[in-house]
């Protein structure tokens, strides 16, 4: 059983940056694909980014390409999401997830964190 704990959310002004972290325990971190998803109020949860087991491959949803960077440190059992040039449209609860498939579909991820709130003011 893998436990995931996100941190790093908060309130930031438009144009600012935040770095989210996802600390994993209870499993072999390097054997899992890691993903970030988000859910805005009144909207469905959406895929943000994913990174493969070694960190050598990444995929982003179009709205965050060039602004967000997903990374991982397998020695620290931690995944990250660096978010730059934030806008109000990025306001959401951000979740990290672990799975076996390098895919953006949320149902392919087996383990989820509790989420961290990101609020971007205009």
Low-confidence stretches: none
Query: How many individual helices?
Result: 0
Quick check: average pLDDT? 97
Radius of gyration: 13 Å
| Percentage of β-strand residues | over 45%
Architecture overview:
With 122 residues, this protein is mainly β. It contains no helices and 11 strands. The chain has strands at 3-7, 10-13, 18-25, 33-39, 46-51, 58-60, 68-73, 78-83, 92-99, 109-112, 116-121. Strands 2, 4, 5, 6, 9, 10 and 11 form a 7-stranded mixed sheet that branches. Strand 5 (46-51) and strand 6 (58-60) form a beta hairpin. It is globular. The termini are far apart.
Topology record:
Elements: E1 3-7, E2 10-13, E3 18-25, E4 33-39, E5 46-51, E6 58-60, E7 68-73, E8 78-83, E9 92-99, E10 109-112, E11 116-121
Parallel strand pairs: 2-11
Antiparallel strand pairs: 1-3, 3-8, 4-5, 4-9, 5-6, 7-8, 9-10, 9-11
